[in-house]
Amino acid sequence: MITSAVLHAKHFKLLVVGGGAGGLGIASKFTRKLPSGSLGIIEPLEDHYYQPGFTLVGGGLMTLDSNRKKQVNLIPKGATWIQDKVETFNPSQNTVVLRGGEEISYEYMVIAMGIHLRFDMIKGAVEALETPGVCSNYSPFHVQKHYQEVMNFQKGNAIYTFPNTPIKCAGAPQKACYITDSILRQRGVRDKAHMIYATSLSKIFGVDHYVKALEKVAQEKTIEVKTKRNLIEVVTNNKKAIFELLGDDSKPTGVTEEIEFSLLHISPPCTAPEPLRSSHFADKTGFMDVDPQTLQSKNYPNVFGVGDCMNTPNAKTAASVSTHLKTVDTNLTQVMQGARPFMKYDGYASCPLVVSTNRVILAEFSPNEILETTPLNQSKPSYWAFLMKRYILPVLYWKGLIKGHWNGPSTIRNFSRLLKTK
Q: What global pTM score does this model have?
């Protein structure tokens, strides 16, 4: 909803584009610093989802409703919610144009538009998702279908895919595969399933530290791992998934492979949102071009980025947002005061890899190093990490992250490292 305040006040000290985890988190931080009404947040959707919970929803371990809240109840007090969508960025004039035609100006802006699911980039996938046997934990409209399909599965190939593009939560396709294995065993039909994890990567996971542990999980569960495979088409009438085989450079080799399926879980290609891709903020990949340490736009110093929409080298996870918020909170405040940004984002990301219905490998890392929080062996599947994934992290998200109170686990990690050295 565009409130009456916006109709008369089309200029904001700070404009936040996007009402996901990053947008709400940064808005919450700055509404505590700026005068009431001087911050606007643009977000078209009425429902806000705790997306890290989708893996558990698809596994029947949580409900979709428990991972959904109304956006109107999450907008921080003092901020103005503009329930619309940005169509055009005009950074040279410090304005954006909304879908409804309204122009909004700003003094400073944070872009937190997230990443878009592109099922349309796979031929036949959009239509296939509406047919039996095809599902995806990535979409709130299909995540419950995954659990239904797993519970109805009788025999055949169960295929889980990983695309040849950037993707949010790169561990999610594996999580869905492992949970499915557990459910099929509980149902007594696992021996009738040939489970396949088909990834575009050259290995099972992008972070070497966790590769051996995950290879062991796949081996113990008799899951066939097919590397350098990219899903390009779904043929619904005879239930075939068509993959292109990739070379070492991740480019197509011209060779394809057809695999019949009874169950197909599609992890979609992802891109930056179209208005961002076509803007002066984007690099050649379409993602927001920022300094990877300060998260400041390389070309427009009054604009910062948060979350998955940026071209930073970190994995695109909700956990990354916590440290993004800490960095932008400090650096944007510096810029507002006429100083240079100095806080450096450490590249932190986390992926709680659910390997069964009650065990998790808690992966924490940056592009350059492992950043585990606890003194325990987090590469070992554990029940305590599952309890954290299931019960603690959702509360941390709703009560901490989007409220601007959680800046990541660096303080806990530093204390943990002291314990390790003693």
A: 0.94
Domain boundaries of the chain, sorted by first residue: 4-115+272-336, 117-269, 349-421
- Specify the DSSP class assigned to residue 370: B
| Assigned CATH topology for domain 117-269 | FAD/NAD(P)-binding domain (3.50.50)
Q: How confident is the model at residue 9 (pLDDT cuts 50, 70, 90)?
A: very low
Phi, psi dihedral angles at 173 (to 5 degrees) = -60, -40
Catalytic residue among 135, 169, 177, 270: 169
Residue 263, strand partner residues: 158
Tokens of 94: 């410090």
Show Cβ contacts of residue 386 under 8 Å, excluding neighbours closer than 6 positions: 354, 358, 359, 360
| Residues 37, 14, 3, 140, CA torsion sign | negative
Instruction: Let me know if the fold of 4-115+272-336 is the same as that of 117-269.
Output: yes
Q: Which of 215, 171, 203 is nearest to 320 (CA)?
A: 171
Q: Give tens-digit pLDDT for 37-78.
A: 999 999 999 999 999 999 999 999 999 999 999 999 999 999
- The encoded tokens of residue 214 equal 């995950």
Asked whether the CA dihedral 165, 170, 174, 176 is positive or negative, the reply is negative
- Quick check: is 169 catalytic? yes
User: Do strands 252-260 and 116-117 pair parallel, antiparallel, or not at all (unpaired)?
Assistant: unpaired
**Of these residues, 135, 177, 270, 351, which one is catalytic?**
351
Which of 419, 421, 394, 404 lies closest to 54, judged by CA? Answer: 394
Residue closest to 354 by CA, chosen among 24, 47, 54: 54
Neighbouring residues of 44: CB distance < 8 A, sequence distance ≥ 6: 83, 84, 85, 99
Q: Which two tokens mark 133?
A: 């046997």
- Model confidence at 414, in pLDDT bands (50, 70, 90)? confident
Is the domain 4-115+272-336 a CATH 3.50.50.60 member? yes
For the chain, give the number of residues.
422
Q: First CA to last CA across the chain, in angstroms?
A: 55
Task: Write the DSSP symbol of residue 24.
Answer: H
pLDDT tens sequence across 174-195 = 999 999 999 999 999 999 999 9
Across 1-60, the runs of DSSP E, i.e. the strands, are 11-17, 39-42, 47-49
Dihedral over Cα of 272, 277, 279, 283: its sign = positive
309 is catalytic: no
Tens-digit pLDDT profile for residues 364-404 = 999 999 999 999 999 999 999 999 999 999 999 999 999 99
What sign does the CA torsion over 373, 179, 115, 201 have?
positive
